[in-house]
Amino acid sequence: MxxxxxxxxxxxxxxxxxxxxxxxxxxxxxxxxxxxxGLAWVVDSMEVMLLAVLSSTLRCEWRLTAFQEAAITVTxxxxxxxxxTFWGKVADKYGRKFSLLLSSSVTLYFGTLASLSPGYHWIxxxxxxxxxxxxxxxxxxxxxxxxxxxxxRSRAVICLELLPESVRYLEVTGNKxxxxxxxxxxxxxxxxxxxxxxxxxxxxxxxxxxxxxxFSTREYSVTTVLVWILWLVSSxxxxxxxxxxxxxxxxxxxxxxxxMIKATDLGDSCIAAxxxxxxxxxxxxxxxxxxxxxxxxxxxxxxEVVDRKRALAAEFFLFALFVLTVSICMPRGWxxxxxxxSRIFGLAAYQTTYVYTAEVYPTTIRSLAMGTxxxxxxxxxxxxxxxxxxxxRNVSVRVAMGVYCLSGVGAALAALLxxxxxxxxxMKNT
Length: 430
Prior knowledge:
Helices cover about 70% and strands about 0% of the residues. The chain is built from 17 helices and two strands. The chain is globular, with a radius of gyration of 23 Å. The model is unreliable at about 1-10 and about 255-275 (pLDDT under 50).
């Protein structure tokens, strides 16, 4: 009979990594992880915001057409698409820490070179390589979720968006000594006692990070397909609203804030109709961007009171509802409010998708699942410039927002069809 005692005076017996992580609780060790891993998440978010402003500026600076402008965004996310699955396989095979450090180094190197780009073709190449490095950022969530006790996991992962290796990765590789060393380090940081007794580890001698394992059972096959849909739409929605924000305020400026249902057809006469963003536009974009903070709060509150599937469905549906109102002819203040609300629920859906994916897959393929999911976000991100930039400007705001609305409704239905609910469910290793 195993003895799992959570008090300082625990008696000898045996314990598992799950019980040890729950015993350690949430304290200084997890706060340290939040700060370090949060930096990777900051880079990912900054990349999206940079594209929204950079492409609009370069359109006028370098005399770009609408398709050339969209190509800058597409190239970055194409790099992310290629890098996502690669970093996931690296993380499952060689460790989460190694994958994150290497991808961060790639981002730093090519991001610095991109800032020195002398022309259009160089910016495409170097921003694409930077995107390939940024694609490793989701592995921060993998490390983080594997160190968080069950009752704190959803709120802690939401707060994330020197490094230790994941204890769950070390466990499945059979590195018992490293598991104990890392747990003892966390115990000192949190000032909580370690469980006494013999540590039992659940190892897996099979190859880790195998793509076929994502479809190993009927449940996982259905889950994987639906999760990929959620990742794709969450990125399509969130990135789309970020990119559309710049374009919409650009349209408001160029039409003297009149009704913008029909966007100006710029075609090849881009420069003749080109309008630089002014201070008023940047202020409006800044206000819309503050939706990031309540977006985290909404995701946190929903995950605390309802299960993962209903939280996802509610977030995607409310995103669809508010994004539809953006296409209504309204004053600047109301447009800003509609964009603000859309970004709240778009970001909340994005974050909840991260939580669900980290919880539903076992340790042996968790990083791969995050990597393939992240790859689908890049597909969504590659599609969204043609909606938020080309379609919006050359056809109409109403049509572009209608595409996002239908996507959100479809994702809400996909969330309800998920066969596995993960709220209150222990993470599995194999």
